[in-house]
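Sequence in, structure out.
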Amino acid sequence: MIADSSRRNRSARCLAVALQVALLPCAAATAQVDNNPGYDRPGLGFTPAVLQAGDITLEQGAPDWSHTHGASTYTADSSLRLGLGHDFELQLGTGWNWLDSAEVTANGRSDTTLALKFARRARGDFSWGLLGSVEFTDGTQTFRAGRRQYLLGASLSWQHDAGRSTGMYAEVLHGDANSALLAVNEGWPATPALALYVEAAAQHVAGSGYGGVAGAGVSWQVTQRVQFDIGARHHIVGHADAWQGGLGVSVYFGD
């Protein structure tokens, strides 16, 4: 247990240093940024917009967290997004996990996920996007899926007056346990740099049944290139995690 704690602390310190190094050049940049389409964090789903060709965004959980049946899982999940042009975007994701429960304490790398997003330029106040991904079984044994996971998701967004927005997200997952999820959200600005959102989701997992969660969060646009976020969701009905949530930072590298 002491050795696990020591490794966990060293990993956390390394992650903190890496984030600080990554953020230094971005936090100093104050030039106008014209082509940042936004971030997929926070909340369920993704933003129905893609990066321009050659632009890169790094989105980092610091960490994300879930708790159910007396077990807590912390995940420093990383997502690297690359604009391909022609309305497409490539995403590569993985992460590092810590599991803490009465029966077991473990840590290790997540499976690698490769995704392709498609989103046309918004027309008027409405935008939409599709995302397909495959999760490979290459993570640490404790956190490895039993078979490849295939996901297809769709995101819709409506922009209203005063910066308000309404979104809807749906996904189907085929893998260890087939599942389907439907989520809705509402967002609005609190200040020019702070945005708030609320969301609710219903999910069906094969073998477990239906469940629902609801929550809220905040994103802080530190600069035009850097965003911090925090959010949480709580179980409201059926079979679902008692709590989900986390902290995150997103950095845009582009024009």
